[in-house]
Write a structure and sequence with these properties.
The chain is α/β, with parallel strands linked by helices and about 400 residues long. It is about 45% helix and about 15% strand. It is built from 14 helices and 12 strands. It has helices spanning about 15-25, 40-60, 70-85, 100-110, 130-135, 160-165, 190-195, 240-255, 260-280, 310-315, 335-340, 345-350, 365-385, 385-400, and strands at about 5, 65-70, 90-95, 115-120, 140-145, 175-180, 195-200, 210-215, 285, 300-305, 320, 350-355. α3 (about 70-85) packs parallel to α4. The longest helix has 22 residues, at about 260-280. The chain is globular and about 85 Å long. The N and C termini lie far apart (about 45 Å). The model has no long low-confidence stretch (mean pLDDT about 95).
């Protein structure tokens, strides 16, 4: 049976055209940039071209793009580099309880190092509390961090409103955004959105694993947190694969060619799955915002009375790959911190399934998955003591 892959939040299939683009850099052009010699000059030129492709996709200058070994590296370079270099401007940080683990673990690290951190709450749909943001601003607030589109619930944060709130401060509060799930799935203009630093990743958009980039607005100084030889970038020192850089740029070219059409296609897959599930499977909860406030490729649904882990395993036996909770939240069976933080119960959190789509998925795959999902949910609920208790309670209420 053909594999159906609906876990594109975790990683995505590398486009064959991306692989083709990379091959010469493994077999012929395998060298690093170097002064004075022709092969080094060619490598520098190729990297420069790749950098411009990515910069153009964000409407920024190529000098503001720094290649990294992935999204996590970009997040760490931005947060640790900025705070170590700019602590003289303030030691108060703001983020939210539903941010990506890279943000939360860095916040915790600096909290233990003497910084103060305000953790904003979020509403049922995963929107951070903007009234709390207003109230949190202080003279020593130096950095606001957020996840542009929530990696679990898909909700897009209101960056124009956040920019407006931050601008009410009497000093500039810098903004770092994790956009790894949002990039190439919505239009992003860092300057219009008031973003100073932003991380993106290739493997989320059908590029190769092991390469990402940090957008760093001109004029911002980062401390050196990784020491070594400056071969590709002064912040991500040491060797970065030129082949992966070329693959990243090709993935960006492919993703941004008719981007609106690709966004509409993925949103249609997401909406179609939701419509069928809502019409055909009772006792569900949609996790996250609906419509344009949700990133196009994400649909997260909780199925009451049963475990998401069991659904995931049974779908896997049918060669259908989905995720339960957050792919990055926990490798154990803990309740998802984002779903719990937005008001779900342990049962609702454990019963969640996240479907994340790509341009390579089809409506037929969605229909097949929903057909199998209906069978699995029915089977699991028949075995569930929670569902039995629910049905007994209904009977009691009816006086049967």
């Amino acid at each position: 049976m053909k594999k159906i892959y609906f876990d594109n939040c975790l990683t995505s299939k590398t486009d064959k055209k991306v692989v083709t683009e990379m091959i010469p850099y493994f077999t012929e052009k395998y060298y690093f940039p170097e002064n004075f010699v022709s092969i080094g000059t060619q490598a520098s030129s190729d990297i420069d071209k790749s950098k411009k492709i990515i910069a153009d996709s964000l409407n920024v200058d190529k000098s503001e793009i720094h290649f990294t070994t992935g999204g996590t590296s970009a997040n760490n370079l931005a947060i640790k580099g900025f705070l170590t270099a700019n602590s003289n401007k303030g030691t108060h940080i703001i983020c939210s309880i539903i941010d990506y683990p890279d943000i939360l673990t860095n916040a915790s690290f600096f909290e233990k190092s003497g910084f103060e951190v305000t953790y904003l709450s979020a509403d049922w749909d995963g929107r951070i509390n903007l009234e709390e943001l207003k109230a949190a601003l202080r003279p020593d607030t130096v950095l606001f961090m957020t996840t542009l589109s929530n990696h679990t619930m898909g909700t897009i944060q209101d960056m124009p409103k956040i920019k407006e709130i931050l601008s009410t401060s009497d000093h500039h509060i810098y903004t770092h955004v994790d956009a790894c799930e949002a990039y190439a799935r919505m239009h992003i203009d860092p300057k219009e959105m008031g973003i100073d630093m932003m991380s993106i990743s290739a493997h989320k958009i059908h590029g190769p694993q092991g390469i990402g980039a940090l957008y760093l607005r001109k004029g911002i100084n980062l401390g050196q947190i990784k020491h070594g030889i400056d071969r590709i970038d002064r912040y991500e020192t040491g060797g970065i694969s030129v082949a992966l850089i070329a693959g990243f740029a090709k993935a960006v070219e492919l993703a941004f060619d008719n981007l609106d059409e690709k966004i509409a296609y993925m949103r249609n897959l997401s909406n179609h799955l939701l419509e069928r599930v809502q019409n055909e499977i009772p006792h569900i909860i949609v996790n996250g915002a609906i419509g344009e406030e949700r990133i196009c490729h994400n649909m997260n649904i909780s199925f009451s009375f049963i475990e998401g882990e069991a659904i995931t395993v049974m779908l896997d036996l049918m060669n259908i790959n989905v995720a339960t909770g957050s792919a990055c939240a926990s490798k154990g069976l803990k309740a998802n911190y984002i779903l719990m933080g937005t008001g779900r119960t342990h049962e609702q959190s454990h019963g969640s399934i996240k479907f994340t789509f790509s341009r390579f998925n089809t409506i037929e795959e969605v229909d097949y998955t929903v057909d199998k999902l209906k069978e699995i949910v029915q089977t699991l609920r028949e075995r569930s003591p929670l569902y039995t208790d629910y049905k007994n309670q209904i009977k009691e209420n009816k006086g049967e």
